[in-house]
Amino acid sequence: MNYIELNIRCTDEMAEILTAELAEFPFDSFATEPDTLKAYIPHERLADCHDRVEAMLADYGVGEHRYIAIETQNWNALWESNFPPVEVDGVVAIRAPFHAPYPDYRHDIVITPKMSFGTGHHATTFLMSRATAARDFGGKRVLDMGSGTGVLAIIAARCGAEAVDAVDIDDWAYENSIENCRENGVAERVTSILGDVRAIHGKHYDTILANINRNILLSDMPAYVESLNEGGELIMSGILECDIDTIRARAEQLGLQFVASDLKDGWAAVVTKKA
After folding, report:
1. Structure pTM?
2. Which DSSP letter does residue 216 get?
């Protein structure tokens, strides 16, 4: 699969806003550099949304941007050169196989991301990794919805989860999750599933982790609530700080209790509980 990199010259503040907007399209990975946002989309999916993306960029007054074709075989070299380890609160280290181990960290997670989102570099993955690592999942069933690389599923399994379903709509993410779970020794407790929210119909979980985006969270939250056991937590991210009230209102409308929120670089994670 070949990808297109949308390279946008913008401020860091605008990069956060544009990342949230582009996540509504089939862009599945993002990277930032000083004054630059890079967004990645499968080559064959760009044609379906190109005009709408251009209109959105024009609405925000974005001028300098370009589309760059990236061949799949060059992707590993690309991320290897731009993938420093991520350290979360001195508890979780997320690194590539070529990085030195973190023996003093409770969770030393090895990730080979390929085309999947979820290396911990984005604020939302960082927030969700923090929330996941802070919990004892002993004997519990966990759902990692929009699992990407499977990093949250791996952390949940490391924190004692009896079984974890890692669901993602992207075939690259599905295959990558399987590889990463095997690499981290949790393959027996993590089931990677290719599909959308319909894949969890009839299933029940003690904790649901959903790091997707605002619109999908609002749309799919009823299905999460239906699959969440009483007393269970629904932890959500992929949203900006300004989206907290909207997500909270939707959750409370569905009978969930707002527990807490966490912030990083303008992004947010929200914890809710099923009473």
Report:
1. 0.77
2. H
